[in-house]
Amino acid sequence: MLKYLRNKTMSVDRTAPDELTVFGVLDDDLYGVEMTAVFSQSALEILSITGKWHRYTTPECPRALDMLQPAVGMRLEPGFRAQVAKVIGRGACRHFANLLIEMGHAAKNAKMAIEYQEAAALDPGLSLEAFIAEWRPDQAPPKAAAQSIQVKAPAPLQPAPETPPLADAPRPSGGMVIDLHVHTAPASPCASAPIDEIIREAKELGVHGMVVTDHNYVWTADDIKRLRDKHDFLLLRGNEVITDQGDVLVYGLERDIKGVIRIADLRAEIIEAEGFMVMAHPFRGFLITGAEQMGLSVEQAAQREMFKHVDAIEVLNGKVTPDENGFAAKVADALSLPGTGGSDCHEMGTIGCYATEFTVNINSEADLVQALHAGSYRPVRFRD
């Protein structure tokens, strides 16, 4: 097993017509930090910034939070990386600096994606390749952009899912619906919703059960039983394990794996435990260009090493684009592997957007693993 893990996660929300709010998390075996930075979309200028420590090594580390404010006013232009490294890396902390640099690039990519949508609305024949070839971060957006996209602030307790559900994804048809991919705070550093609140929301929606798959963290059986009894709700244990080939959802394995593990070694443990492995969001990251547009065919994707070691592929995931979900489904079909669905919930308002419908009753983790091996399920769209 590899002995060191570093995980970076970030998301971008368009919170106002000219504001992009970027949330970033950096988590490794020594440090855990998060940042929120608001960029102007037009100039990619940092308007505000806040930071938070989850884990640090010296008493001086918390002082870095006071040194983040000099980043306000910086723009994503030539020299941005060096400026952040000098001002934030030296004055505050290199971990915050590295994260902020990547958050800036995430804001730039989001700006490009938004402006392509606006330009395509004015010129339906405009290809993505042609737009990217001519696009510059400092160019003026299309004149009618203000009318092409309406921005609505999310409700305080019910923010919309990050990705709109696939319109043609099947709906449940009377089976038992379980969300197989759920994260909770604080077990997953990137999550914001406590498990009790997520359970209450799932019950209100009519989801029949959920599997807690926190990153490299396994809940104890006693804690799960206590929560099941408290809420009268089916709650099961899983895990999202980081491997050398990407994230893998595992069911039926109780060992708490820390760090990065080789996928072949994880497979050996799953076989011994008679568990089940699902490749999670295998094509996350093709938001801007798309798999086909990068020259990756279904046949080529199906040859990737990761798929040689798993029992199924997550083909409906609430944190990726419809195109990425669709491409995953095509690869699963090409490999004759079953597909699963899960919200990949990290916050309120997203539980159950996608789930898995079982044709048999599930009452325990053993039931779940048995049903997964039997193929008695299908991925479904549950929540609009």
Which CATH class of the largest domain is shown? Alpha Beta
The secondary structure category is alpha/beta
CATH architecture of the largest domain: Alpha-Beta Barrel
Overall number of domains: 2
Beta-strand content estimate: 15-25%
Number of strands: 14
SSE ordering? EEEEHHHHEHEHEEEHEHEHEEHE
Poorly predicted runs: 144-164, 286-294
Individual helix count = 10
**CATH topology heading of the largest domain:** TIM Barrel
Mean pLDDT: 85
- Strands across the major sheet, in which order? 7-6-5-13-14
Major sheet attributes: 5 strands, mixed
| Bulk shape | globular
Q: What is Rg?
A: 21 Å
Domain Polymerase/histidinol phosphatase N-terminal: 178-245
Protein name: PHP domain protein
GO molecular function, one term: 5'-3' RNA exonuclease activity
InterPro entries: DUF2889, PHP_dom, PHP_domain, Pol/His_phosphatase_N, Pol/histidinol_Pase-like
Describe the structure.
GO terms for molecular function: 5'-3' DNA exonuclease activity; 5'-3' RNA exonuclease activity. The chain is α/β, with parallel strands linked by helices. It folds into two domains: 6-146, no CATH class; 176-381, Alpha-Beta Barrel (TIM Barrel). It has ten helices and 14 strands. The protein has helices at 80-91, 94-122, 128-134, 145-148, 195-205, 221-231, 263-273, 298-302, 322-335, 365-374, and strands at 6-16, 19-28, 32-40, 46-55, 176-182, 209-212, 234-237, 239-243, 246-251, 276-279, 312-317, 339-342, 354-358, 377-381. The strands form three sheets. A five-stranded mixed beta sheet has the order 7-6-5-13-14. A five-stranded mixed beta sheet has the order 8-9-10-11-12. A four-stranded antiparallel beta sheet has the order 1-2-3-4, covered by helices on one side. Helix 1 runs antiparallel to helix 2 (94-122). It is globular, with a radius of gyration of 21 Å. The relative contact order is 0.12.
